[in-house]
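Hello Y.,

Per our agreement to keep a running log of every chain we model this quarter, I'm adding this entry. I've kept the format consistent with earlier entries: sequence first, then predicted structure.
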Amino acid sequence: MKALLVGLGIWGTLWYERLTEHKDVRLTGAVDADKQKWKDDTGVRFFDDAEKAMDILKPDFILNATPPVAHKKINDLAFDRNIPVLSEKPIAEEHEDVLHIVNRAADGQRLMIAENYRYVPQIRKIKNCLEDSKAGVIKEVNILFQQTHHIDNYHMTMKHPMLMDVGIHHLDMLRYFTGSDAKTVNAQFRIPAGSWYNGYSNAELRILMQNGVNATYSGSLDADVIDSSWYGTWTFICENDTLRFEPEDGNVNTGLDAVLDSFLDYLHNGTMPETHISDNYKTYQIAHAAICSFGAEKEITI
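Predicted structure for the entry above:
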């Protein structure tokens, strides 16, 4: 299938490699306004205008690896041409943009969100362990994420970099592990003294899932010490036992490849992917409820 990659930042560069190496994909073009990011690859055409690239190349699908603030614009260009989209998370940065994208997808446009954490092997193993364990029903989940993350890109201008760039992965994993959606959320955010982030780099959430599981989440992008992998440290208090998992950071390509395989299966066979927009919106709802909770200083029911 012919692919067009839009965005050649950190994640776009990773996707460039996955698309060029996949046996069932032919990367015909890539788009980025910064021509210094263009690659010396005679097999790929480079553009600084996404609309022009879509009209000339007529790809079978778009991979949207632009910053979240641009997701709506790029997705709309693809949807207007009936081109399926595999988009990086989150769905979008602004709530109004998220609702717009969700509504367009509901009208028949094909869209999957690349929420890759749940697809990596070590996360799949934890899910299997929880299902096969004699620990019994999960009663409570405690999630700790602490990283010292220095990066010079759009993260610096995001209002909620912890929640919307990294925490969104962990919220999706929470839904995946518990097999439930969230019911209520109570949240606090802060920017500690000395932080290099302009937005809220720390998040504390209390979440009640619809199946009765209580979850706490503590995340930091500017911790004094690195005390977890990017997947976080997970403690499951169950009916008969307590289980603790510290998944190690592995090869990110395994998750991306699994996401891409799932998306291609969706396009070829109609198999609904786990992180189809209709499902991933439920992950986004937790994040949005957290932001609303912080603003209203009260618990929010989803």
